[in-house]
Automatic annotation (TrEMBL):
Catalytic activity: S-sulfanyl-L-cysteinyl-[protein] + uridine(34) in tRNA + AH2 + ATP = 2-thiouridine(34) in tRNA + L-cysteinyl-[protein] + A + AMP + diphosphate + H(+)
Domain tRNA-specific 2-thiouridylase MnmA-like central, residue spans: 206-272
Location within or outside the cell: Cytoplasm
EC numbers for this chain: 2.8.1.13
Pfam families, per database record: tRNA_Me_trans, tRNA_Me_trans_C, tRNA_Me_trans_M
InterPro entries: MnmA-like, MnmA-like_C, MnmA-like_central, MnmA-like_central_sf, Rossmann-like_a/b/a_fold
Domain tRNA-specific 2-thiouridylase MnmA-like C-terminal: 283-358
Protein name: tRNA-specific 2-thiouridylase MnmA
UniProt keyword Transmembrane present: no
Annotated positions binding ATP: A6, M7, S8, G9, G10, V11, D12, S13, L32, G125
Gene: mnmA
Record family assignment: Belongs to the MnmA/TRMU family.
Length: 362
């Protein structure tokens, strides 16, 4: 197959590309320039997409003997990922930019261009397993539970997955680094990037304040309605947050308070006890079925609401075009804007059934 390997400059995408070559594919490497100012997006292990990263990817391509190009996707990334991120926070929701990047950049903009140029598949360094079962793509968790990225890939459609390749799905990170060292790749010990790539200092609240300005509002006790403090904007908070609330009035029971909900129109941030965070029902919009098979009736499954953690046994069904998930065990900190991803409930529990964007949790 003709394979386009997306090479970020890190160890995972480097080994994925090398494995595609070793499997006998005709591989071309491409680094996506996602920032208009690529020199500013890496601070130690944070961020990505710098000139340094592009050069690291080019050196890997030279070693494994494949052509290499840099494609400028900065404008598309800004519009589809960064601006979407800002707009979602302004609306009181909590987006997942990695999911958006996979959905709109790597397996939309990049994949569309790759197919137009005659490539059969896009290869990435994601930790997830992908196979065809009876002609349908089956997306599964990675063998390395600590690195599993099936959650942020669960919004991909069957037509996108049929052109995807994840060579690292059966590996653990330590073995990937060892393989990179054995192949003589200088990125073998390169630190992983963390947090949000376009916020290299990790200060999401400051980034959003620079973009949205201050939008003062009240911190309100959810139970009594009392005003407990003030804030500079709902965009500085997410459901489940405990630290940095700035409460001027301590709780009567002396226990910590958490963000329960955000009301961007009134500017209110409602806070309360941890117990009031508990939810047993989740509603999600615009469901996606990676295998192409929609749920038939009510299905037992495992629901996940965050990229790492936040799982519970559940039953799920489609009602009037929305995904309705009823949790067997309660979850806390379920935020609108995040994805709820469903996995098949079986001994492995690792096959993705579908995903949707959370609109309500009660």
């Amino acid at each position: 197959m003709r394979v386009l390997a997306a090479m970020s400059g890190g160890v995972d995408s480097a080994v994925a590309a090398a494995r595609a070559v070793a499997a006998g594919h005709d591989v071309t490497g491409v680094h996506l320039a996602l920032s208009a100012k690529p020199g500013t997006l890496r601070t130690g292990a944070r961020g990505c997409c710098t000139v340094e990263d592009a050069n690291d990817a080019r050196r890997v391509a030279d070693i494994i003997g494949i052509p290499f190009y840099v494609w400028d996707f900065a404008e598309r990334f800004t519009e589809d990922v960064v601006e979407d991120f800002v707009a979602e926070y302004a609306a009181g929701r909590t987006p997942n930019p990695c999911l958006r990047c996979n959905e709109r950049i790597k397996f939309a903009a990049l994949l569309d261009k790759a197919v137009a140029l005659g490539f059969d598949a896009v290869c990435t360094g994601h930790y997830a397993r992908l196979s065809l079962v009876d002609g349908r793509p089956e997306l599964r968790r990675s063998a390395d539970a600590g690195k599993d990225q099936s959650y942020v890939l669960a919004s991909l459609r069957p037509d996108q997955l049929r052109h995807a390749m994840f060579p690292l799905g059966d590996s653990v990170k330590a073995d990937v680094r060892a393989e990179a060292a054995g192949r003589g790749l200088a990125v073998a010990d390169k630190p992983d990037s963390h947090d949000i790539c376009f916020i290299p200092d990790g200060d999401t609240r400051a980034f959003l304040t620079r973009r949205l300005g201050e939008r003062p509002g009240a911190l309100v006790d959810d139970e009594s309605g009392a005003v407990l403090g003030e804030h500079a904007g709902v965009h500085g908070f997410t459901v489940g947050q405990r630290h940095g609330l700035g409460l001027r009035v301590p709780a009567a029971d002396g226990r910590p308070r958490y963000v329960l909900s955000l009301e961007p129109v009134s500017g209110s941030v409602r806070v309360g006890s941890a117990e009031r965070l508990a939810v047993r029902r989740i509603v999600g919009a615009a469901p996606v079925w990676p295998s192409g098979e929609q749920l038939a009736g009510e299905v037992a499954c495992v629901a996940q609401v965050r990229a790492h953690g936040g799982t519970a046994s559940a039953t799920a069904s489609v009602v009037d075009g929305e995904l309705v998930v009823r949790l067997t065990d309660e979850l806390r900190g379920v935020a609108p804007g995040q994805a709820v991803v469903l996995y098949r409930e079986d001994p492995g529990g690792d096959v993705v059934l579908g995903s949707a964007t959370i609109t309500a949790a009660t």
